[in-house]
Amino acid sequence: MVSTATKIGNFDFDNCLMNAAGVYCMTREELAEIDASLAGSFVTKTGTLEARDGNPEPRYADTLLGSINSMGLPNKGFDYYLDYVTELQNQPNSKNHFLSLVGLSPAETHTILKQVEASDYTGLVELNLSCPNVPGKPQIAYDFETTTEILTEVFSYYTKPLGVKLPPYFDIVHFDQAAAVFNQFPLTFVNCVNSIGNGLVIDDETVLIRPKNGFGGIGGDYIKPTALANVHAFYQRLNPSIQIIGTGGVKSGRDAFEHILCGASMVQIGTALHQEGPAIFERITNELKAIMSEKGYEKIEDFRGKLNYIEA
Ligand code: RRO
Fold first, then answer.
1. pTM for the whole structure
2. What residue segments make up the domains of the chain, in order of their start?
C-alpha cells in the first residue's frame, strides 16, 4: 500500500499535501472546505493583530504560467483563526492544522505570539517572515539582523511548536547566511517559499493589478525551480530537527514528488489550488501515489531528500 502520510514535529498528517497560506483560507467556510478535502491539513491566511481590508482591487490575477498578487495582508484578525483552529483541535479525530501569523511590527508580532502562548491552542504556528506586499514594509527575512532579533525575543517566551515562512533566496551566500540564522533557534520547520516578491506582469500596455503600480508576488510555474532550489539548499544546511515544507509551482504529482525529493516533508499548493479548487488534492495525491508505486516507494521517507547529483 502506497502512503503519502507525513509528520511535522510531533504532528501526524494522513497526506503531505495541503493549501499554501493565502489560498482558500480567509474564512472558516473556505478552511472547512480544505478540511473536508483530501488535503492532509490547512494553514490559515496570515493573521495580524487587527483585521485588515488589504490593498485595493484588482489585487490578484491568474496568468498563463502562474499568478501575481498584491493582496496586502487582508485577514480577519489573528484571533478569528486562533479560535477556529482551537475549536477544531478540541474535536475528536480532527486533522492537525497550521496557524499563520505576523505583526505589522516586531512589537505587534510579540503581542500576537504571547497571546497564542497563553491560549489553549497547542498546534503548529507558521510565522510569516516574507509578505512582499505591504507598502513600506520590507520582507523581514531578507534582513538577517532583524530576523535574528525577532526570533531571539520570540524564543524567550514562546514554547509551542513554531516554524517560519521564508521568501526565496537567490544566492548561495544568502542560503548559508539564512541557514546559520535559523540553525540558532528551536524551529520545528521552515516553509520554502513565499511568492517571488515584486514581479510585474503586463497585458497589452497595462499592468494586471492595481496596488503598487502593478508590482506583486509571483507564484505558479514561474517559481518551481526557485522553490526546489530553496527547499534543497535548506535541506542541505539546516539541523535535521528543522523540517522543510515545500511550496512553489506545484500543480501535479510530479511537482510534489520533486519537492519531496529535494527534502520537503510536506508540500503546499497555492496558485494551482486557486485555479482548480479543493478537488486538486485528490488529483495530485493520485498522481503522486502513481509515481511512488511505479518506482516501488511505499512512503515518502523512502525518497525524501534523496535527490541524485551528476558525479564528476
Ligand atoms: O497578503 C498578501 O499580499 C501576501 C502575503 Br501576506 C504573503 O505572504 N505572500 C503573498 O504573496 N501575498
1. 0.98
2. 6-302
